[in-house]
Structures are given as structure tokens and as C-alpha cells.
Amino acid sequence: MAQPPPVILITGGAQGIGKGITAHFLNSGWRVVVLDQDTDAIDACRMDLGDPDNLLLIRADVSQEEDVISAVAEAVEWGEGLDALVNNAGIADPDTGPIEKLELAQWQRRMDVNLTGTFLMAKHTVPHLRQRQGSIINMASTRALQSEPNSEAYAASKGGLLALTHALAISLGPDVRANSISPGWIDVRAWQAHAPSEPQPLSATDHNQHPSGRVGTPDDIAAMVAYLVSPEARFVIGQNFVVDGGMTRKMIYQD
Ligand code: NAD
Q1: Domain residues of the chain, as ranges?
Q2: Is the pTM of this model over 0.85?
Q3: What is the CA radius of gyration of the chain?
Q4: CA of 37 to the centre of ligand 1 (A)
């Protein structure tokens, strides 16, 4: 009997990097569940990628445990199981201003979404992922490893994700593999519901400072997710994969 198509749940999958991952997996024959809190982005995603047999879009906030419980139940019922989870939802704006003026509520919201949301999603999907020898991918950032000024809350939330990833990997192996991806600069403007329809082209400086010769795209990240959930990555556990066009390997001392 033919195997049913595998099922992947992508948080924040209605726009930006997440939408790129959603498109990639739909094109690769997976059934995809997108969980996102932005209804405009969900509507746009349905219009652009809509495939009622293979794409389920659920509005939910990953930082709210009741939302997570009901979304996971709906996803598993629709997909008849779950093979992979991508914890991609995040408040992607790193700049929260000077530490002296950083409000506790701003700090807390980044922790709640970027870090606690990942914990909640893992907690409630693990029983289903175990049944399929599944895989978890957490979307961290190169800002877990290096910083610009005024990014304490974002950097700390993403650093926490690296630690959460290796803790999950050790607790859940060999049934479920957990790894993280740390993207560098990924140009998501053409993939966002609220961005201008014709974003200004990036400059030659933007591109050429990268050893890759260009800024990243959501496809660059989707390709790494595809590898990490594949059987070829079955010996890859608890690692963080930097996908940044080489930027964090470049020395930047000025003459
Ligand atoms: P984005 O803002 O385009 O997409 C983020 C998505 O997450 C949105 O659809 C948003 O609605 C959703 N989301 C936010 N809070 C949520 C919540 N509480 N519950 C459910 N959904 C929620 O951002 P992006 O640039 O595509 O970033 C995606 C991920 O990649 C983020 O975790 C971000 O930190 C990380 N990242 C992005 C870059 C980059 O250069 N774009 C670099 C490094 C890391």
C-alpha cells in the first residue's frame, strides 16, 4: 500500500521565511499545516498557495498554551499524524532600543513568542512526532552568536533557542531529532503580507559584503529545513546550522 504523504507543521508559516518553507514543502509533495497569528497573512497565503487538500491554515498565537493545544489537535486530526515541526514564528525585529529604556513588557513578549512559544509547540507535538520518528527544527538567528547594539531581548531569546534545541535533542533521541537553523540576513519583503508590493532593490553594498555575493532568500532556509527533516540527516542531532552567506566567518576589523 502507498505511504500517505508526510505532514509538516510550520509556525509563522504564512509569510516571510515561513511562507518560503511552506511553498517548498507543498511543492515537494508534503501536506503542510501553517500556524500563524496574522489573519491578513493567512488570507494572502491561502490565495497564493491555496491547495485545500494539502494546506491547512490555522490562526493561533504560539505563546498561548490553549491556542497551541487546540491547533496541534486540529493539525494532527487533519494530517492523521505529524512528521515534522518547524518553530519559525518569531518577532523578527531585533532592535528594542537602549537597554536603559527597554520596557519589561517588550523583553517579555520576545521571550514569550520566540522562546516560550517553541517550548509549548514542542511540548504538545512531541507525543505525535515520537510515533513517526519525527524531527523538530527551531529557527534561531546569527544574532544568537553575535550582535548589533540594542538587541538584548531578541539576542537572548535566540540564544535560549540554541540551548533549548540541544536539551530537546538529548531528551528526545533517538525517537525525535531536534536541530536549529541560524539564518543571517534573509530578504523576506516579497514574502510578507504587509510589505510594499514592489520593494526597493537592495544595494550592491548589501549584496557584495556577503562572501556569497548576495543577501539570503527564504529558499536558502527552506533548503536547509528540507535536508534536516530528511532521512539523510538521521545522524544529525542537537546542532545549530548557520545559513548566512558566510557573514559570521568574515573578519571585520577596520584598517
Ligand atoms: P516575518 O515577520 O516575515 O514572519 C514571522 C511570522 O511569524 C509572521 O507570519 C508572524 O505573523 C508570525 N508570528 C509572530 N508572532 C507569532 C505568534 N505569537 N504566534 C504565531 N505566529 C506568530 O519574519 P521572518 O523574517 O520571516 O522571520 C521568521 C523567523 O526567522 C523568525 O523567528 C526570525 O526571528 C528568524 N530570522 C529571520 C531573519 C531574517 O533576516 N529575515 C534572520 C534570522 C532569523
Answers
A1: 7-249
A2: yes
A3: 18
A4: 11
Q: How far is the CA of 113 from the centre of ligand 1 (A)?
A: 10
Q: Check if the beta carbon of residue 10 is closer than 8 Å to that of residue 222.
A: no
Ligand 1, atom 44: closest residue by C-alpha:
141
Using a pLDDT cut of 70, give the percent of the chain over it.
100
CATH fold of the domain at 7-249: Rossmann fold (3.40.50)
Catalytic annotation present for 154: yes
Angle between helix axes 117-131 and 65-79 (nearest 10 degrees) is 30
Q: Which one-letter DSSP state was computed for residue 214?
A: S
- Over 80: is that where the pLDDT of 196 sits? no
- How far apart CA 107 and CA 206 sit, in angstroms, is 29
Residue 51 has pLDDT above 90, yes or no: no
Please choose, from the candidates 118, 205, 197, 107, the residue with its C-alpha nearest in 3D space to the C-alpha of residue 156.
107
